[in-house]
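Researcher: Quick test of sequence recovery. Tokens follow.
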């Protein structure tokens, strides 16, 4: 081969290499099918977004919203009492010197206090906090940690299992708080932030968008006469265990939802999370604050979503593709008095469009017994309107009030009266519940929060305990004596312990 041929060959190879390189670059900058990205390509894409070239679109400011909200989102730790594994101490075992089944010091493995961890949102400067009912359900003590690490013990003002909400109160003033926004104005595709304490990681902020509204995921089942309300905001902001009860806010830092649930096969975030809309939260909080119980206005109709499946099942053609089919009307109900009939299709409440059952339930749940709602419905192809006066579950318009239990304290012990539903459940005529216990002698003896004291034995004999005040009176008159405390845990397990 001559030198001339050699150089021509090298030049041709260089040209071909250049063309191939340009073609490769052209291919890489073309939009690729999402399914063709491997792990390294995805990592590179993320790195590119985090580079100096990437900027947040105009008008979006996550920083300002996070700074407003984070100080007002708290960490909620709820202690839940459980009974010892052994129902009663056996005097025969103790007589023959067998080990105390409660373990060393009488503490007992069964006397451990499991802790439920979640989040909460301060909604007023004087210490009212909203959280999920499932975060504090069964709690005998609720510890609140603020973002600045201040600690408080909270009192439960009221709970509502039908919406999975609870209202707490701490003794503090001038607290940072989150203002309520209007979840009705929230649009699908709108940016939102989720703030909470996932996996005990305090003050965690994640971002996402509103993915859908009025979602029913069937997480609240068989609660209080099947009056559960599920009309969740769905978002792709990352939410994990511990976020429950935390804030979902818009970019103005306004509360538009309380994070409640995730859809996951693993128990951790898999792309879908759900929040109770703020319009419903505000109504429930107002009720609990004013009355101690939620005031539910009911339409009194049996309802189903309009759907092709229902159309096929009933063998009838619906005049609309979306709406709520009335399958029946209860006697003495608001719907009955308003003239609603089986076969009607509800398409609106108070001028708002109704597409499904969740949507209808949320709109009605914002009302109270005695409130009037305008119901738009279709009957025999004709659209009509009627006014319905909502009633409560008892069939009247009375407001239900619940008194907040009064607590009594004595040397680090806090007692309250046994609630009526617990008396009925355990067939008790009275008793005193250990609400809080910071008395070391009682702790060592085996006293646990939530334990119900029914009687005590002292040198003067056995005394029945009718209520918390009676327990305080007994302790004040028996100081210095060895006493035996008898009672049971909330699950009915009987137990007793000795203390001085």
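Model:
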């Amino acid at each position: 081969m001559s030198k001339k041929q050699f150089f021509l060959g090298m030049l041709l190879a260089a040209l071909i290499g250049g063309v191939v390189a340009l073609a490769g670059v052209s291919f890489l900058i073309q939009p690729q099918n999402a399914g063709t990205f491997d792990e390294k390509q995805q990592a590179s894409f993320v790195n590119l977004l985090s580079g100096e070239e990437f900027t947040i679109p105009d008008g979006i400011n996550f920083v300002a919203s996070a700074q407003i909200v984070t100080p007002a989102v708290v960490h909620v730790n709820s202690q839940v009492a459980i009974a010892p594994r052994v129902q009663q101490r056996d005097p025969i075992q103790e007589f023959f010197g067998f080990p105390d089944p409660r373990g060393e010091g009488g503490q007992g493995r069964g006397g451990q206090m499991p802790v439920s961890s979640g989040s909460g949102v301060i909604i007023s400067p004087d210490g009212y906090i909203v959280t999920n009912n499932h975060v504090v359900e069964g709690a005998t003590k609720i510890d609140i940690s603020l973002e600045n690490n201040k600690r408080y013990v909270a009192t439960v003002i009221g709970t509502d299992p039908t919406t999975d909400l609870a209202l707490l109160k701490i003794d503090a003033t001038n607290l940072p708080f989150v203002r309520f926004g209007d979840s009705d104005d929230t649009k699908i595709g709108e940016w939102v932030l989720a703030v909470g304490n996932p996996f005990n990681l305090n003050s965690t902020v994640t971002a996402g968008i509103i993915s859908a509204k009025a979602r029913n995921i069937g997480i609240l089942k068989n609660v209080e006469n099947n009056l559960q309300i599920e009309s969740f905001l769905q978002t792709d902001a990352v939410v994990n265990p511990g976020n429950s009860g935390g804030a979902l806010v818009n970019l103005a830092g306004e509360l538009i939802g309380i994070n409640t649930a995730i859809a996951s096969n693993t128990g951790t975030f898999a792309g879908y999370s759900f929040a109770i809309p703020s319009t419903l939260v505000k109504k429930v909080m107002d009720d609990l604050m004013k009355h101690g119980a939620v005031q539910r206005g009911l339409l009194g109709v049996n309802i189903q979503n309009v759907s092709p499946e229902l159309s096929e099942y009933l063998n009838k053609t619906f005049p609309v593709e979306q709406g709520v089919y009335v399958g029946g009307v209860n006697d003495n109900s608001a719907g009955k008095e308003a003239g609603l009939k089986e076969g009607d299709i509800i398409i609106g409440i108070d001028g708002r469009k109704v597409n499904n059952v969740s949507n209808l339930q949320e709109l009605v749940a914002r009302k109270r017994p005695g409130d009037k709602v305008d119901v738009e419905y279709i009957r025999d192809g004709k659209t009509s309107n009627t006014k319905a006066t909502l009633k409560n579950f008892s069939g009247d318009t009375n407001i239900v009030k619940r008194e907040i239990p009064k607590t009594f304290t004595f040397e680090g012990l806090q007692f309250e009266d046994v609630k009526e539903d617990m008396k009925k459940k355990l067939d008790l005529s009275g008793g005193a519940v250990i609400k809080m216990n910071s008395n070391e002698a009682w702790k060592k003896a085996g006293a646990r929060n939530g334990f119900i004291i029914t009687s005590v034995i002292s040198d003067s004999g056995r005394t029945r305990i009718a209520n918390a005040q009676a327990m305080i009176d007994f302790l004040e008159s028996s100081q210095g004596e060895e006493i035996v405390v008898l009672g049971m845990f909330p699950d009915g397990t009987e137990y007793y312990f000795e203390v001085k």
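The first strand starts at residue 73 and ends at 80.
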